[in-house]
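Bumping my old thread because nobody answered last time. Still need a sequence for this structure:
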């Protein structure tokens, strides 16, 4: 059974930093696409940052230069370092894994990030 457990969310003032972690069990980081998505109230879920099977990293334009995604293949952990946080970054953040070979997506339960002005 695959489980993704996020941690690290919370309340922070604008300009501050948070580090989100996603611990994966039941799946290895081989042949997968990894990513962090977020969903703000009244808005669609959007990709924040992703890592392709080949290790190529991409970011949403709104977070480039502020957020950094990384993975630890040995520990099956995905991390999102968020710096210079803005009020518009307030959302529930979700960890995401797509296992390519079986065409299956997995989602974490989400962690709330709230940025105050």
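Sorry it took so long. Here it is:
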């Amino acid at each position: 059974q695959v489980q993704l457990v996020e941690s690290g969310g919370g309340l922070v003032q604008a300009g501050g930093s948070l580090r989100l972690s996603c611990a994966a069990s039941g799946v290895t980081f081989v042949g997968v696409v990894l990513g962090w998505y977020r969903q703000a109230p009244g808005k669609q879920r959007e990709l924040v940052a992703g890592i392709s099977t080949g290790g190529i990293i991409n970011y949403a334009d709104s977070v480039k230069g502020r957020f950094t995604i990384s993975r630890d293949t040995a520990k099956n952990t995905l991390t999102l370092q968020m710096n210079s946080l803005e009020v518009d970054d307030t959302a529930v953040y979700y960890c995401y894994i797509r296992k390519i070979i079986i065409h299956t997506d997995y989602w974490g339960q989400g962690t709330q990030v709230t940025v105050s002005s």
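The longest strand covers residues 91-99. Let me know if any region looks off to you.
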